[in-house]
Write a structure and sequence with these properties.
Length: 416
């Protein structure tokens, strides 16, 4: 059997559906666990900027550089992560690991992406407990954030060209962006976009009744049940003195029901740990969220910091396990269903709607990040330079992040 033709991923053919020879190419060139471990450990050390930036870096590495999958397959996995609770970028790493190396790859990719951030946050938490303050990382963030904006915008452009296949999908994406900017819940945006595209496409195919009958009720019911179970676990934890099991139970609940960004995580943790359980002060919680934002890797490593404050190294370990464990379980359950969803006309249409809505949510987050990242003329210059270098030379994004960090430190602490 001849090898599949080489296709430039930015050409129209690169956006073809999963029936193209991408699956065959993956089977012919299997990814080793060592390759997965190296890639996701490196991303775990260098992926500053939150989920949108992490997704952009994974797109760059997995789709553009290594050609492990087409952009459409990548988008399908991204859409699937938005349908389940938990940290989206971590779940995307787990999905990629499963797609490339089966169940072992699922574990290796997820653990290697999470572990560097956990180690860094644990070290910062130790210093915080010992010295009573956070290390000074403001200069690093000052330079890294503008570079992250350039990385995310490039990813949005590339992913958007694959996801927006028609004017109708473009309209759905714009409506989803408007809804996200207006503060509509992320899950509502995704559900309405997916159902709307499925029903609309079904009506055009003279199968409106059949298409309209396809609604992800089983999934929503399962999420509701998971939320109720998680709340019951947390309530049981509240009646127990602070120990490793109550810490694990609280963070397991959060990981099982939380949709959205790190700011949504802040709301959940504040309600549980500050208002209800009184395990932390408001100031400690804000410091914990700041650590999750300024360190690379998943923002959910805020849980590692909080766990260390509550119960030392053991508390950090069980809090981390509790908040990330549901992501592995949800991906293991939902991952094998993604190809079946794509093969179903109604479900595939819904996934198309979810994909463009996912990018709209990513764009809304990017606008918010941009306001926080580009705060003066030097950061604006860094963002423009980063975009120019990325477009002209297409370097590895880790070098951009490192360059931004060095520039930020120089601008913040230099003799000028």
């Amino acid at each position: 059997m001849p090898p599949p033709p080489s296709i430039d991923q930015d050409s129209p053919q690169a956006t073809a559906g999963p029936d193209e020879p991408a699956e065959a190419a993956e089977a012919e060139r299997p990814t080793t666990l060592r390759e997965l471990a190296w890639l996701f450990a490196r991303l775990g050390f260098t992926s500053f900027g939150g989920p949108a930036a992490h997704i952009a870096m994974m797109d760059d590495e997995v789709v553009r550089r290594r050609r492990w999958m087409t952009r459409e397959r990548f988008l399908d996995l991204l859409g699937a992560t938005n349908l389940i609770p938990g940290p989206n970028s971590t779940e995307l790493a787990i999905h990629i690991g499963h797609a490339r190396a089966g169940w072992a790859g699922l574990v290796v990719a997820g653990v290697c992406f999470i572990s560097p951030a956990v180690a860094i946050v644990t070290a910062i938490a130790w210093a915080y407990v010992r010295f009573g303050t956070l290390p000074q990382l403001a200069g690093v963030l000052y330079g890294v954030k503008p570079m992250i904006i350039a990385v995310v915008l490039q990813a949005l452009w590339g992913l958007g060209r694959s996801a927006v296949k028609s004017y109708a999908l473009a309209a759905v994406g714009l409506a989803a962006l408007a809804a996200a900017l207006a503060g509509v819940n992320e899950l509502v945006v995704l559900a309405v976009a997916g159902a709307g595209v499925a029903v609309g496409r079904g009506a055009l195919a003279s199968g409106a009744g059949r298409a309209a009958s396809w609604v992800p009720v089983p999934l929503l019911g399962a999420l509701s049940t998971a939320g109720s179970a998680g709340t019951a676990v947390a309530a049981a934890a509240a009646t127990t003195s602070v120990g490793l099991w109550p810490v694990f139970a609280v963070f397991l609940k959060v990981g099982s029901v939380l949709f959205g960004s790190g700011y949504v995580l802040l709301a959940f943790l504040r309600g549980d740990l500050v208002d209800r359980l009184h395990w932390l002060t408001e100031s400690q919680l804000l410091d914990a969220v700041a650590v999750g934002q300024i360190t690379p890797g998943p923002v959910f490593t805020t849980a590692t910091f909080v766990g260390y404050l509550i119960g030392g190294g053991g508390g950090a370990a069980v809090a981390t396990l509790g908040i990330f464990l549901p992501a592995f379980v949800f991906v293991a359950i939902s991952g094998p269903l993604v190809p079946r969803i794509r093969r179903s006309p109604a479900a595939g249409a819904a996934l198309d709607g979810i994909n463009v809505a996912s990018l709209a949510l990513m764009a809304a987050v990017t606008l918010q990040l941009g306001r926080a990242a580009i705060v003066d003329l030097p950061t604006a210059i860094l963002a423009v330079l980063g975009a120019a270098v990325l477009i002209r030379y297409r370097p590895n994004t880790a070098w951009l992040v490192l360059g931004g960090a060095l520039a930020g430190v120089a601008l913040s602490y230099g003799p000028w």
